[in-house]
Amino acid sequence: xxxxxxxxxxxxxxxxxxxxxxxxxxxxxxxxxxxxxxxxxxxxxxxxxxxxxxxxxxxxxxxxxxxxxxxxxxxxxxxxxxxxxxxxxxxxxxxxxxxxxxxxxxxxxxxxxxxxxxxxxxxxxxxxxxxxxxxxxxxxxxxxxxxxxxxxxxxxxxxxxxxxxxxxxxxxxxxxxxxxxxxxxxxxxxxxxxxxxx
Length: 198
Description:
Elements: H1 2-30, E1 48-50, E2 54-56, E3 81-84, E4 92-99, E5 107-115, E6 121-122, E7 132-133, E8 152-162, H2 174-180, E9 185-196
């Protein structure tokens, strides 16, 4: 009888020790490094780029609202733009501005190429010396200011760096520019602004 009682107590003791060990193991598992949340500081909004080149504007940041003065509700000039980290071997730059939210599915607001890669910026409302403008979706060889019929639209400013000058005449389309420079793009960068019709 005493032996049976001793055996029972031993079994109970082992079960208690095993239970405690299981609880400790579960606590350690739940505290493993992979389960501890890591707080990541939000990154500042910047333009997206390939090979380090960047495009920016002093009038709005990446994903921010374009001031109305640069739209059909204001003077309608193109905003000032700044380029940085342009590849040293770039021969020319091009800029395409489009609205992917247009009712037609896409609207080209500006096409301009053979921009000197050393100028570093395009001033408000000005065309760089030697640059050539292509045809917009409005049929003009000039900047077309944002003028959405309703809601919020995105306006994507895409900067291209080429390893040669573009052999196109004024009035060529965006598609013609892409075709003529196929295989000659060495870097790209984009800046997206937003305008909402009130």
